[in-house]
Write a structure and sequence with these properties.
Structural class: alpha+beta
Number of domains: 2
Number of strands: 11
Distance between the termini: 9 Å
Order of helices and strands: EEEEEEEEHHHEHHEEH
CATH class of the largest domain: Mainly Beta
């Protein structure tokens, strides 16, 4: 790609740290990149998980910017990086594609605002159901029968997505287990998706965050 640089990151690799100087924007081609804000030792909050054809690190397009989160590859991930100077060239030479990229960033910003609304208006149980539904869209988290598998590492990811303590999340998971929506097998939990659908149907329609529309992938890959 003439404008952006491609890189592949191993699972667990920290692409950048909070507070580091930022310049440009990243687009995920494959894998997942988790953005995490450290709350205190051993705890964090995940405002965004960037999946293929979604962006992260867009604060690097502003003036004298610094990254506001840590970005870590959740599994082996390939990204494109468009620096601020190359973005300006891209905008000048490919205005239609650059506008599509900007529209993608704005759509993702809307999702972040929805996330903020969830934190301030929804209960832990409601946020947990929404978070489980999001995790169920990750193919490698789901077994052949469609059930979502939560091992200890994914359980931590869930807690950080919900934005609640492990104790609060455990209480809700205990209730869902009692209702037969979750089955515990040793250190792994098996979540039945049909039960999640029923729970989502109990929420107001505007409490369910729609997926970001991505028509034909990122503008940088076209």
């Amino acid at each position: 790609m003439a404008y952006a640089a491609s890189a592949t990151w191993p699972a667990g690799f920290v692409i950048y740290h909070r507070g580091a100087e930022a310049d440009g924007i990243f687009v995920v081609l494959s894998g997942r990149v988790v953005l995490r804000s450290r709350v205190r030792a051993g705890r964090g909050f995940i405002p965004w998980i960037a999946t293929p054809f979604e962006t992260f690190g867009g604060e690097g397009l502003s003036t004298s910017a610094r990254f506001v989160n840590e970005a870590r590859a959740d599994d082996e991930s390939t990204t494109l990086f468009l620096s601020g100077s190359r973005f300006r060239v891209f905008l000048r030479e490919q205005p239609a594609h650059a506008s599509a990229l900007i529209a993608q960033v704005m759509a993702e910003r809307s999702q972040l605002l929805e996330k903020l609304r969830e934190l301030t208006t929804m209960s832990v149980e409601q946020r947990l159901v929404v978070a489980l539904t999001r995790l169920a869209t990750f193919g490698d988290f789901v077994r052949e029968d469609g059930c979502l598998l939560l091992n200890p590492a994914r359980y931590r990811l869930l807690c950080e997505l919900v934005g609640a303590t492990r104790e609060s999340v455990s209480l809700v998971l205990g209730r869902l287990t009692g209702e037969g929506l979750i089955e515990r097998k040793g250190s792994t939990m098996v979540v039945r998706p049909e039960g999640l659908v029923g729970r989502l149907e109990q929420l107001p329609l505007d409490d369910i965050m729609p997926a970001t529309p991505v028509a034909g992938g990122s503008a940088l890959t076209q």
